[in-house]
Amino acid sequence: MLAVDVEHAARIAFDAGNGSISDWSARFHRDIENIRHYPVVALDSQNSIVGYARTCWHEDDLGEENSAPNGWYLMGLRVEEAARGRGIGQQLTSARLNWLAERAEKAYCLISSHNVPSRELHEQLGFTSHGSDFNFPGLEIGHEELLFSIELPQTP
Ligand SMILES: CC(C)(COP(=O)(O)OP(=O)(O)OC[C@H]1O[C@@H](n2cnc3c(N)ncnc32)[C@H](O)[C@@H]1OP(=O)(O)O)[C@@H](O)C(=O)NCCC(=O)NCCS
User: Fold this and answer.
1) Which atom of ligand 1 is nearest to the CA of 122?
2) Which residues contact 10 (CB under 8 A, 6 or more apart)?
3) pLDDT at position 41, please?
4) pLDDT (average), residues 74-93
5) pLDDT tens digits, 6-27
6) Residue 125 predicted with pLDDT over 80
7) pTM for the full predicted model
8) Does the pLDDT at position 108 exceed 80?
9) Most ligand 1 atoms within 8 A of CB, residue of 121, 122, 127 to mutate
10) Which residue lies with its CA nearest to atom 23 of ligand 1?
11) C-alpha–C-alpha distance, residues 137 and 46, integer Å
12) Cα of 63 to ligand 1 centre, how many Å?
């Protein structure tokens, strides 16, 4: 993602109904500046942005019992409704996994237990679920997010 992509990506994120466009713009600008974050966008054949995805390093030093592991997390993926079902979500995820494979042996993500498309997408790529019995900043007790992980292929 480049600074010039931020406004359009923020609009797609805003359409999901969480936060304001300016919140999302600020978040994407912080992603671009942080070397431990990796924001990407997908373009259609007209070079319009039709989706975005984020990757962030997560480190929780609260030492809470049952904390989700520290590590790299796929943290946000959205494809515009009109562009879904064409492999864009999978490409955005594969691009991030390729980037992560050069940096880590494992990656994580959190997916709502109700989100069948996202679960299917990640399971197809090799993610496995570890259930919902974990704590993560911002998630309340009894949350319905599932923790997924994947072993990343290591190049010699
Ligand atoms: C989840 C999301 C990103 C998928 O994007 P997409 O571009 O439509 O997905 P793809 O076309 O790349 O599909 C890849 C795989 O995902 C799964 N999938 C995608 N849409 C699906 C659906 N509606 N039902 C079941 N599985 C689905 C399939 O396994 C598919 O592989 P296949 O085409 O071989 O069957 C998209 O639906 C979205 O933006 N949803 C709203 C935001 C969201 O839920 N983000 C994820 C948060 S963890």
Assistant:
1) 16
2) 21, 22, 24, 25, 28
3) 97
4) 97
5) 999 999 999 988 899 999 999 9
6) yes
7) 0.95
8) yes
9) 121
10) 117
11) 39
12) 34
Strands 106-112, 71-79: pairing is parallel
What are the pLDDT digits (tens) for 44-78?
999 999 999 999 999 987 777 889 999 999 999 99
CA of 86 to the centre of ligand 1 (A): 9
Three-state SS letters, the chain: CCHHHHHHHHHHHHHCCCCCHHHHHHHHHHHHHCCCECCEEEECCCCCEEEEEEEEEECCCCCCCCECCCEEEEEEEEECHHHCCCCHHHHHHHHHHHHHHCCCCEEEEEEECCCHHHHHHHHHCCCEECCCCCECCCCCCCCCEEEEEEECCCCC
CATH class of residue range 3-151: alpha beta
